Structure formats: structure tokens, C-alpha cells
Fold this protein.
Amino acid sequence: MGHIGIYFTPYKNEFVYSWICRLARANGLSFRHFMVNYMGHNMIFRGDFKYELRHELTHLAENSFRGLDLDDIYKNNTGRRFYNLFLTEMQIEKVNQNYVKDTSNLNLTVQYHINHIRVCPECLKEDECKILHVEHQIPEATVCAKHGCKLMEFTKQKGYEYEFKESDYQEVPYKFDEDTDFMLSKYISDLCLSDITACITDVKQDVVDKLRERGYLRTWNDTAALLTDIGAWKYKGLFQGREEYFANKIFPRKINIAPEGFLPFMIFAFPDVQDLIRVLPRHEQYFERRCCSVCGKESIFTVLDKSICYECVKKDDENHEFARLIDKMSDGEYKAMSEFESLNNEVALLHKECGNVVHIKPRMFLYGTSRCPCEKVEFDNGFKILKAYQNTGMSIDDIIKTTVWNGYKLGQWVSCTRRKAGKNVLTNKQISQLEEIGFTFAKLEKKWIEAVEKYRRYVLSTGIKHVQREVVFEDFRLGRWYSDVRQSYTKGTLAKEKLLELREVNPDFPKLPEKKKKIKPKNKKKKVYFDEVLELFLEYRKEYNAQNIPKREEYKGYKLGIWANQMRAKRKQGILPAEQIERLNEIDFDWNPLETKWNEDMDRYRQYVQSGGKPEIPKEKDFNGFAIGYWYSNLKISYRNGSLTNKRINEIRNINPQFML
């Protein structure tokens, strides 16, 4: 990895993603290629794109020729200064470890990732260099604290880079009202741009002390006076009507909740954010450079982390896994004595039975092809046992690799001896001894000769050269053998010598006799015309009293659902004839069933609210046979995923103004 050609530090309040994009462009690289070359990432993001960079910053800090201070980047350019106010020290440490190690899932009360980027149009005009500001990326902020104008959110399809084109952004709606949103955004902005390094414990204690100073919370359960004054507070809308729920959850118990629950209490206790900033701790260090106690390499660690770098931890895990495999595959007979490097680099293994330490490639050991020399049976001992086996009247050729005789692995010895003979490892004396008892060195070759001889006799006796697969001749599956030989020829694995032997018996091999092809009459597919399908469609609609047809629905042998979808697709592509469009319009054909379904569901929701139901619906609620609770729950999920259009959000808020605010 080379050094970065053009390098500069980020602005104090610049979002880290914006800085990386500027570095990439200054060096003539795309964001993706910059990440691959300088930030140690081959597969940058999978699926849902995140703009918050973490583990990649460690690579950049370690490989940059300039001493990049990860601690300053973390505090000033990631939004962590604000988010840490709602996390415990343990949770903050886990988050910090995600910056210096591989990322892992965290159970946090705050949004850990930033899914959408936001800009202030006025800041873009004033900035010397167009950047993304950290304080604008906090989801709770909807207004620029400096200019008081609404923020704009990036709506273009997620990718690796962004641009400041006005058409790629849309205005962020107010969460409450203009005055409340400006106050909240200003409060968040001041916290982000301060030098505090506090956790939820610090903030909670300061808020409680301030409230008690003002006469509230004389005991933990004494929240009545606090709730009464909150009810008359100018910004009570911040609680969204849930102040009692939040108060009972935060103060009597040691429970931490997300910013939406605790931030309003912070603002109520400290209306002037500078008063809060003055009492909160600061200058705490999160990261530091130390030498790894194992490999000695200088790396970045969290302050509370052990002095063992991530690579050494990963290496240690590999060694433990390798030692476990060795023990499992050898039934405890072997023990790993050296570190695992790769499958092809030899390792030292202790054979517990004999005490020998052998050096074997892990691949050879794990696949069972290499063991301690004491496990290899001497030739003379194996030969005596083989001769005794033959003297009982059994054939040596019947021995297979798994054959065990009188407790001895005779099949393994025979297989090993054949392999040695092929490598010319056996002595002349040993070869002579084996030949005297009729030992077959090339067992497969012998089987081939016998099979060809039987094929020759079969052809002479029957005159049939092409053997059918099911044929058995002289207790030998000749048909299957012939079929396998043909396959070998087709794959190109049949040796030339064997092909010549076969053609001595069958000169036409591997050609088969020509068969007369039976000419089958073509099935003429019945052509179904538009008028006929339209009649079926009207019949279905009349019979089932349904406007739309499910996609896979069949009616009288015809797939009407697919036909209806095809009509919609053709009209969208502009290839459906005008005459057919007119005919379909005459029968009130539904061109957009999904929109129709949405309108029907919204009508039910409107009726439910008008009949006295609460706009916030429990999941298990049912209304006139419609699972309205599940429908409303899915709506909220779609909103969080960003799949609800602004038009639909406005429709919902016409009925429920507090939807997802």
C-alpha cells in the first residue's frame, strides 16, 4: 500500500465521509478505489449502504505517512460526541472497539449508523470548500442552527459517492414546528461542536442534580411536580405526549433510553446548553498508539483494551482452531506443537504414543495421507500376513483398501505397496517376492484386460458390438462397463492404447447404429385472442365479485392473473394497442392494483380513526375483519426503511399528524 499523494486534514466539524470523498477526488480516485487502496477494504459495503466509516479509519491511520490522530477524528468528525451522551461507559468502549477491530452487531439505544446525508443550502454557499457538516447528520436535527433554514436530504439512489446537485436533495420536514425544531437543532449543534466527552451516567447525574436544585425529584418516584410543569412548558411537544412514560422509565430505574426520550429532560433542566456543557467532563482520550505485546508492531488501541493487536488475536484464534482439529481428527493421538501458518507450511506435531515430534504439512495430515513413521508397517511383516491370507484360499485381488484381516489393516498395506511400486520405491527383492505370490501391481490394468476379453467373447458369441447397459455376461456387468468406457471416451479420459484395443473388437467404436427418428406431429398451441380472454375476465369478475385477479389465478384453464399483469406491463411500455386500452377502460380495468389497495387500506384507517379509535394502533388490533394493527405496524417499518413516498406520508399525517414524529 503506497502513501497518499495529496493529503489534508478534515475541517473541525466536517463529517468523516465528506473528508474521505474529498481526499479521493484530490488524488484522482473514485471513493471506492480510494477505500480499496488506502483503507484496507476489498468489499466496502454489503446491501444497505452506510455513510458512517469505522474500522476503515484505523487502516487509514496506520498506513498514512502522516500521523492521523484517530482520537480527534472520532470526537470531531463522526457525531460520536453527541451519541455518547446516551450510552454507558461499557457501551462506548464496545463502540470504540468497533473502530479498531472488525465491526460487530451492538445492542445500543441510539442510532449507530448514518443512513442519509443532509446539507444546508446556505452553508454550501458560504463554505470555502463544500463539505458535509457533522451537526447536520444527527437524525433529530432538521434545521441549520446557523441559518435557521430547513436541511436538505440526499435522495438519490445510494452509492459510494454523492454530489451537491440540487435535484438530488429534498427538503427535510419539521418534526414538531418551526420554533421547536430550530431550538432542538441549535441545542444538538452546540453539543456536537463542544469539547465534551461524557456518557449517560455523567449526563443523568447532572440533569438530576439540576432538577433537584429547582425543587423537583426530592425522591426518585416524586415526578408529579415535574410532570405538571412540563405540561405548561413551551416545548412540551418534544415529549410527544409521553413525558410520564419517559419519566417513570428514566428516573426511578437505572434504564437508559434513546435521545428522543432523554434529550427533552436535558433541555428542560438546562435551557441554556452552555450551562450543561460547563458541567460535563471533557478531554477524555478514547484511542492511543501502543506496541502490540505479542508481535511488537505499533497499532491503535482503545484506552481500556489489552495491548494485543487485532491481527494477533485473529492468529491466536486460528491456532486454537487448528489444535482442536488435530486433536479431533486423531482421536487425541496427536498434539500441535507449533503455530499454524498455512495448509502447505509444515507444523510440528507430537505423536503421544511414541513420543516422536514429526514435521508434516497440515494439508497432508488433515486429509489422512501423512502420519508418524511408527504407524507405517514394515514390508516384511505385511508380506508375511499377505501370504498367510493367500494360503487360506482367498484371492489377493479381492482385497480392498478397507480390508482388515486378523486385526491387521491389510488393505491399507496393499494399497500403500502398490503406490510405492508406482514410485519405484520398492527394492528388486521385494518386487520378486510379490511376483512369486501373484501380486497384481496394477490392479486396474488387470481388470481392464479381463473386461476387454469378456467383451471380445460376447461379440463373438452374439455378434452384437454395442452392448445395452442392462446386459450381464459371465457374471460380469458388461453393459455398465461398456457405458462407462463410452463416457470416458466422450470426456477425453480414455487412453489411446485402450481405444486401440477396443477397436480391434469393434472397429466402429464409439459410434452407435443409427436409429430411425420417429416424427412426432407438432402440437399446435391454440391461439387465444384478446376478445376471448376479455370475456373470461368478465365472467370471472361476475362469478367472484372481484375487481382484480391474483397473479397466479387460473380460470377455466387460462392464467387470467398473468394476462392482466401483461396488459398493465404492455400499456406501461407503450406497446398495447389503443383499441385494447379503450376496451379495457370501458370495463373499468384496474391499471394500478397496488395503488387501489393502498387507497382501500387508507379508507379503512380513516374510518377507524373517525369511529373513535386512537391513531397509534396496537399490533393485535382488528377492525371490521381487517388486521389494521399489523397493517399500521408494517407502515412504520416502511417509513424507517425509507420506502414510503412523501405523498403517502402526507396522506397518513392528514389522519394522524403525529405519525413517526
